[in-house]
Design brief:
This protein folds into 2 domains: 97 residues, 2-Layer Sandwich (Alpha-Beta Plaits), CATH 3.30.70.940; 77 residues, SH3 type barrels. Helix content is 21%, strand content 40%. The chain contains 4 helices and 14 strands. A 6-stranded antiparallel sheet has the order 9-13-12-11-10-14, with helices on one face. A hairpin with a 4-residue loop joins β12 and β13. The protein is globular and about 50 Å long. The model has no long low-confidence stretch (mean pLDDT 85).
Length: 174
C-alpha cells in the first residue's frame, strides 16, 4: 500500500485535454478544482448583446474542452467528476499535451490579440517564428486565410488550430 502511494506521488504529471458535457465547462472546472486537480480553462472576453442591454462576459475559448494536469493514476478521478464526458484520444490512447503548448496558449489568452478557433483542416505552410513583441519565440505556420497572413498555433493532439493575427513584419522564416 505504501509503495503504491509512493509511486503515485513520484509519477509525472502531464496536461490532458478532457471533453465536457455541453455548456458545462465552468462547473466542471470548479468541481475539479474542489478535488484539488489543477485545471486550465482558457476564457475569452466577449461583448454579448441582449434585447435590453450589452454586457462583457467571459466564455470558454474552446467549447467543451478543459485541460487537467494530472498523473495517469488520477484519470479515473477526473472521469468521475460531474460535467466531464471523456478524455480525448489520439492514435488509440489518451492524448496528452506538451507543457509548452499549454504555456503558449496561456500567453496568447493573456495578450490583447484577436483570436479565433477553427476545426478547419488547414494545410501545412511555411514554418515561422515570431521575432518581436509579447509572442516572441512562438513558432507556427503561415496560412492564407481570409486574405490575411496569420500565425497558426497548431494543437495537434486535439485536432484544433488557433489563428492569431500577426503583422508580417514581426515574423521570420525558419
Amino acid at each position: 500500500m505504501a509503495l503504491a502511494a509512493l509511486a503515485a506521488n513520484t509519477a509525472t504529471r502531464k496536461w490532458y485535454p478532457v471533453y465536457t458535457h455541453a455548456r458545462a465547462e465552468k462547473k466542471a472546472c470548479q468541481a475539479l478544482l474542489k478535488k484539488g486537480i489543477e485545471t486550465y480553462m482558457p476564457l475569452n472576453r466577449q461583448l454579448k448583446q441582449w434585447s435590453d442591454r450589452k454586457k462583457w462576459v467571459e466564455e470558454p475559448f474552446i467549447k467543451s474542452y478543459l485541460f487537467v494536469y494530472i498523473t495517469e493514476h488520477e484519470q479515473m478521478e477526473v472521469l468521475m467528476t460531474k460535467g466531464i464526458a471523456r478524455f480525448i484520444y489520439f492514435s488509440g490512447k489518451i492524448a496528452c499535451m506538451p507543457s509548452t503548448q499549454i504555456e503558449e496558449l496561456k500567453l496568447l489568452m493573456a495578450g490583447p490579440y484577436q483570436l479565433e478557433i477553427t476545426e478547419e483542416n488547414l494545410q501545412p505552410g511555411e514554418k515561422i517564428v515570431i521575432k518581436a513583441g509579447p509572442l516572441k519565440g512562438i513558432m507556427g505556420e503561415i496560412i492564407s486565410y481570409r486574405s490575411q497572413k496569420q500565425l497558426v498555433l497548431r494543437l495537434e493532439n486535439m485536432g484544433l488550430s488557433i489563428l492569431v493575427h500577426v503583422a508580417a513584419s514581426l515574423i521570420n522564416r525558419l
